[in-house]
């Protein structure tokens, strides 16, 4: 299974945000074990760097990005992605960019902490907790 991991889930694990870090850690363990293929939008890298740098400094941000990139694939941002994101007209444009990446790269789902941000879209969007529950129910 190939899933796009929303920026907020990456931040949950990097910043150890409670109570979300446990589910994010489980999701990333699935990626590291090769049970799923994890993707992030290229913009996620810069967004996470910016946020972590503001909160914890440049060196911590660089280390976080290096660690985050281990085992993850990048979805490129190009004109087609931006046009699709604009057409989606989601409240949060960044969410639209991530969803457009997942759709255009033919991924199976988008995993986020805030599934309600994607209501009404014609794509599988699951919360981190719901994804883990569905994915591990067959084990």
TrEMBL record:
Pfam families: PIN_3
UniProt keywords, alphabetically: DNA-binding
Coiled-coil ranges per UniProt: none
SUPFAM superfamilies on file: PIN domain-like (SSF88723)
GO MF entries: DNA binding
InterPro entries found in the cross-reference section: PIN-like_dom_sf (IPR029060), PIN_dom (IPR002716)
Domain PIN: 2-115
Protein name: DNA-binding protein
């Amino acid at each position: 299974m190939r899933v796009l991991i929303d920026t907020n889930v990456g931040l949950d694990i990097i910043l150890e945000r409670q109570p979300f870090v446990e589910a994010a850690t489980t999701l990333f363990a699935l990626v590291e074990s090769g049970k799923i293929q994890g993707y992030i939008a290229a913009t996620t890298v810069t967004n996470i760097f910016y946020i972590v740098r503001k909160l914890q400094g440049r060196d911590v941000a660089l280390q976080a990005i290096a660690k985050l990139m281990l085992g993850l694939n990048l979805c490129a941002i190009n004109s087609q992605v931006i046009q699709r994101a604009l057409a989606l007209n989601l409240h949060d444009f960044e969410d639209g960019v991530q969803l457009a990446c997942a759709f255009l790269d033919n991924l199976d789902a988008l995993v986020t902490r805030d599934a309600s941000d994607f209501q009404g879209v014609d794509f599988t969007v699951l919360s981190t907790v719901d994804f883990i529950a569905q994915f591990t129910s067959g084990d």
